[in-house]
Amino acid sequence: MIKVNVAKQSNFPVDPSKLKKAISEFLTKNGIVSDAEVSVAIVGEKRMLELGKKYLHDSGSGVHNVFSFTTDELPGKFVFPPDNIIHLGEIVICFPKVVEEAKKEGVLIDDKVKELAEHACLHLMGVHHKE
Length: 131
Hints:
Strand 1 (2-8), helix 1 (16-29) and strand 2 form a beta-alpha-beta unit. Helix 1 crosses helix 4. The chain has helices at 16-29, 45-56, 95-105, 109-124, and strands spanning 2-8, 36-43, 66-70, 86-94. It has one domain (2-124): Metalloproteases ("zincins"), catalytic domain (Collagenase (Catalytic Domain)), CATH 3.40.390. The termini are far apart. The model has no long low-confidence stretch (mean pLDDT 87). The protein is α/β, with parallel strands linked by helices. The longest helix is centred in the last third of the chain and has 16 residues, at 109-124. A four-stranded mixed β-sheet has the order 1-2-4-3. The chain is 40% helix and 22% strand.
């Protein structure tokens, strides 16, 4: 079973159940068949800037739309979880950037959230791209 936790920093109009379903289906379609867990946070621009500064030492490139953090990016040595659940990592999505990008691209906000979440899932599974 794939467990998806969704937390919203504010009352952003994102349907957690739809997002959970989309992520679970995406992970399954991309080969995750073991028990797994991923956490998603929907945050504002201020929080996204704080995360960029803290983890990317980012100090001026603007607000990112999405971050993903795998368990191996956390401090300390990884210990396989005793519950036998694969903790894929965390996804952080900046809702104001989602709105801005969705408007610019002419897509629905929900579709943009899903696109960014799926992109971040690929990173959590080790699939990376060149910028």
